[in-house]
TrEMBL record:
GO CC, alphabetical: endomembrane system; plasma membrane
Membrane topology summary: Lipid-anchor
Region forming the signal peptide: 1-15
Location of the Copper acquisition factor BIM1-like domain: 15-151
Stated name of the protein: Copper acquisition factor BIM1-like domain-containing protein
Residues forming coiled coils: none
Superkingdom, taxonomy of origin: Eukaryota
Keywords: Cell membrane, Glycoprotein, Lipoprotein, Membrane, Signal
Length: 198
């Protein structure tokens, strides 16, 4: 019983969730529960399309709910600025209270064209807030909006303009990630079986 408790404690501290696209601020699982942004400061910006982009990541818990918000700002937004504007997905629905399952996730195609200030060249920070068994977790992505930014493969295939090559590239990324995670999991299982033997 004690061994099981230890194992659960170890696995819940492990990774929580990560963002693969757009590029997120530094990931630190120990501070991911600190809002905003997992306690990470404004970082390098990547380009993000005004329409047709998406936010992708990986969840390492069985289930969670997520919200995806945006702040148009040149500076690092404060905690109270987040969670006011949720990115519009799937034809305008606000991306809040989105149910996620373990594994890779995708926000769906994001259309920022009706978001106030979301114009060509505007700087913005996206925040994903995930609520799961071990609390509320935060991750941010600093971006510059551009209609010329490459549209992420999964979003473009959802919009019907994707292709098989793009889809399989996404799959390959996921596989690499999960095998890296697999090493950690293997270690956990090794530790767990040792404990059960004892
Ligand atoms: Cu966790």
């Amino acid at each position: 019983m004690q061994a099981l408790a230890l194992l659960l404690a170890a696995s819940s501290a492990f990774a929580h969730f990560t963002i693969s696209s757009p590029k997120s601020r530094k990931f630190d699982e120990d501070t991911e529960n600190l809002g905003p942004c997992g306690n990470q400061v404004l970082g390098a910006r990547s380009q993000f399309p005004i329409t047709g982009g998406s936010i992708k990541g990986d969840l390492f818990h069985p289930t969670a709910t997520a919200n995806f918000s945006i702040v148009i700002s040149n500076t690092d937004p404060t905690a109270s600025q987040f969670g006011k504007v949720f990115v519009p997905i799937d034809g305008g629905k606000e991306a809040t209270n989105v149910a996620l399952k373990q594994g890779s996730f995708d926000s769906g195609s994001i259309d920022l064209s009706k978001v106030s200030g979301a114009v060509e060249g505007a700087n913005a920070t996206l925040q994903v807030v995930v609520t799961t068994t071990d609390g509320i977790l935060y991750q941010c992505m600093d971006v510059t909006l551009s209609k010329d930014a490459a549209v992420a493969p999964a979003a473009s295939s959802a919009a019907g303009t994707g292709n098989a090559a793009a889809a399989s590239a996404t799959g390959a990324t996921t596989t690499t990630k999960s095998s890296a995670m697999g090493k950690g999991l293997g270690l956990l299982i090794a530790v767990a079986s040792m404990l059960f033997v004892m």
